[in-house]
């Protein structure tokens, strides 16, 4: 037989007698690969010849005689005639019935007598029984004409109206409610938001209406929460200019937001309430009594309008903070009876 090395595909011619039935391990002389060599499979004809050649597989002695005896016995049984079937008993005659007792059977109508297919055969129901069809079709006499569900008024097939869809309408309503709630919450949180919302044409409960642009730009709205405290007036004799009428005090920021550049105005009145003189001044600068006594008018004015004092004491005043102010009148009138001070300007800090 010819065997092939599975590793290097080298073919060898090996005698069949050297390979046992269970196979044997062989080694390739070219690549030294060891593999299992098995004998070739026998064809059906070769297997039959192999069985005939083996003496131990032949039939035992006397088996052919037993086979012939069994065969002869089967042939003899097949040649015996089959037994005849027994005759079935004849049926007994039935008693004759009288014509009176025999029910009348209607003869089937012939083609000429048969009713036409288009004509309905009416049968009269029994007196005590009502046909099922009439019971189902019976309707009260008071009811009007009844239209079946499958017919329309014009006799054609009915068209049922589609059911109204309520889900889209309900969803749209919910979205509108949610939008209104969001708008309301946004206006409630307006004081803490970094942007300003447009003014509403109506008032919402719990929402403080923002001031209009005209109110926001008016001087009264800018200074309405600047309070004046610790105000006093006195007269100092200056060596160079003579008596000086002094008014001083503090301006306090009571707004909720920072303010700066607060400006005040002082006025002098006579006994009749007439204005004898007025003067405006930015808060933030003050002078001591010694400076008021020895400095010239120009030096006093320069000190009270110093930008250093304004930047130090009158910028970015947080809620609750204050800034000092001082207003000086040189050579005041002798008929002064009273004075008045008011805040005329306050600005928001520059962004």
Report on this model:
With about 350 residues, the protein is an alpha+beta fold. The protein is built from 9 helices and 10 strands. Strands 5-6-9 form a 3-stranded antiparallel beta sheet. A 3-stranded antiparallel beta sheet has the order 8-7-10. About 20% of the residues have low confidence.
Distance separating the two termini:
106 Å
Fraction of residues in helices?
10-25%
Average pLDDT rating? 75
Give the overall shape, derived from the CA principal axes: elongated
Mind describing the biggest β-sheet?
Answer: 3 strands, antiparallel
How would you sum up this structure in a few lines?
The protein is 25% helix and 22% strand.
Q: Secondary-structure blueprint of this entry?
A:
Layout: E1 2-4, E2 11-13, E3 24-27, E4 34-37, H1 44-53, H2 63-79, H3 132-137, H4 167-188, H5 213-217, H6 219-223, E5 226-238, E6 242-253, E7 260-269, E8 275-282, H7 289-294, H8 297-304, H9 307-313, E9 322-330, E10 338-347
Antiparallel strand pairs: 1-2, 3-4, 5-6, 6-9, 7-8, 7-10
Features:
single chain, 351 residues, alpha+beta, 3-stranded antiparallel β-sheet, 9 helices, 25% helix
